[in-house]
Amino acid sequence: MPVRVLWKVIVLVGVLTAVSLVSYEEIVRQWRVYRYRARQKQVQHLRDVIGHYQWELEQNPDVLEVRMRDGQIQIVTDNSARVPRTLKDLPVQHLPAPPYPAPLLGVFVQRPDPTRIEVWDHLPQTTVCPEGYRDRWRYRVHYCVPLPPPVAGMPFKDAAAIFWRHVEELRALPGVSPAEVGLDEDGIVVVTDHPELAPREVEGLPVKTLPPPSIRPT
User: Fold this and answer.
1) pTM, rounded to two decimals
2) Residue 137: its pLDDT value, please?
């Protein structure tokens, strides 16, 4: 074989080998990106489901603790018969309660504190939360926490229920990422670079759009 032909063959083999290595590395990179995004989507879905049912779960004395571990929802309970086995489309794993001290009688009322430091008053003579508070149970201890302020004139509980019913479809809009849909005192907030695709309201709850931070005016 002439030297020139042999040299061309060597160069061709080298080029093909380099292309194969680059293609393989790119395939591996894409696979890792796909797996990461799939895990993030699963975690986000778990958080959405827990958020949707958080109010209801906190008012159930038999729900001692709610966890999100190993890609599933776990509820610690000492009375499985009164705890849901599914939340939305997800199975719930029941975990036995560890030993815990006998709860104190009465309620613990959280003081409104602008410094966000939690201070609680123990009222042993009552079992009912004061007006303007809601129940929250944890390991058979009855807490009373202040009701959140209304959202766009709507009670927070009703606004939150609407938010969780529509959060997934809002996140699916073009230009919206999972972390860019929230709830504030004015309604639902959607951060997007395509505001024309977002609805103006859902079930009577206003929807406000904001541009991504990178294109907001300074």
Assistant:
1) 0.68
2) 92
Residue with token string 């479809």? 169
Model confidence over 187-208: pLDDT tens digits? 999 998 888 888 999 999 999 9
119, 110 contact by CB (below 8 A) = yes
Own/partner pairs, 155-161, CB within 8 angstroms, 24+ separation: 157/55, 159/183, 159/187, 159/205, 160/55, 161/52
